[in-house]
Amino acid sequence: MRYVLVCPDDFLFRLLRGAPTQGEPPLYIVEGRALRARIARRGGAAMAGSLEDPALYRRAFRNGRETALVAVPLARRERILEALRAAAPQAPLVVLKDDARALDPAVASATALPTAAIAERVIQPELERAALRARADRLRAHFAAAERLLIMMQDDPDPDAIASALALRAFLGRNKASAPIATFGGVTRPENRALVKILEIEVEEIKARAIDDYDMIAMVDVQPSFFEERFGTVDLVIDHHPEEGPVRAHFKDIRPAYGATSTIMTEYLRAAEVKITQKLATALLYGIKSDTLHLERGGTKADMEAFAFLYMLANHNALRRIERPELPNEALEVLALGISRRQLVQGVLFSHLGPIAHVDLIPQFADFFLQVEGVEWSVLSGIVGGELHISVRNVGYLRSAGEVVRAAFGDLGGAGGHRAMAKAVIRLKEWRADVGEASADAIQHGIMERFLRALKG
Ligand SMILES: [Mn+2]
Predict the structure, then answer these.
(1) Distances (CA, A) of 420 to 221, 296, 359, 371, 391
(2) According to the CATH classification, is domain 4-108 in 3.40.50.720?
């Protein structure tokens, strides 16, 4: 179906002539034969007549249900809409307007499109992008002088940090030899390890004295004051954590309103028109996802926009593998045992797995059991190296898991967490001394008793 564009002069034609059309080109309805001829000469379909005459629209509309865009002066608007309505009562109308006066509902049921929306959605972002592009150029010029650049992340860097570091390297057009990605702390947490393994990202673990080997230092998702190690003035800090103490850097871009540094980096890459590879898009998407808990926590419009942009480019199979770690084959035996031992009491599913080889299976199965119908909490436990590990999950709108776990097991060992997930680690020696027997049944029973008491308390 073709669109009908109503405007006395050539404003809409100049605004929209370059826009891609789906199917049939639009029909311009204008006033004046000369203008009609000019549009036609430039390849547009046009019709001319008085915009206040319904007869013009009867010629223009084929079935009366074509959508029309109307851009006319305020003084004539009501009469023109009346004429349109008379000729095509069912046509959806969109009225472009720069005034505050509401559309008269008696004349036409139409959608108002304020010109301010165009400024906000098209012009404003373009102005911001131009400013960011200029800053991007200055940044690149600054780093061009460095033979070796160090990109620093926090200790045990999370996906947001790793993705941001990769993005900065791509932004500066460097490789892993001229700009290594480094941390003082190694990569240890399972989801961080999964990211670097599956996307084949090399993270270097360095000692503090190694920073002298580099000409320049950039930091992403972290600030100099977050380190125990001392830094002089660094070259660049890009971060979304609030500033704690003065940041000494040639360039800094710190945006605490943002949910992730990956979002800031995505904006730089887009402003500088750097090609974002599938691997980089996947890392950045995961960085935003994990720092904002799937955009639920602290995600802003900027995060959503970056997310939507990266979503089209990312490798979703790789992402699935990172987010859902593979199960080793023998894990199925443990799962079978967990299923057979499960006890569901007042919405809480308990299962004690006994001695197990992979400690990661406990939280993984705690996640899994949370999907069972009627389960609001899952409490999974197992024994690894003389310690009892307890992982707790809930569906998210209940009491804080961290609080309940501290109340239930805090007196026996390390216990804590946040709203939806928590864990406790108790030495079996402690358990025997304070609770009693450590057979599988006794442990399951003991955990149940303590947990349910803490949940009610
Ligand atoms: Mn972050």
Answers:
(1) 24, 13, 19, 14, 11
(2) yes
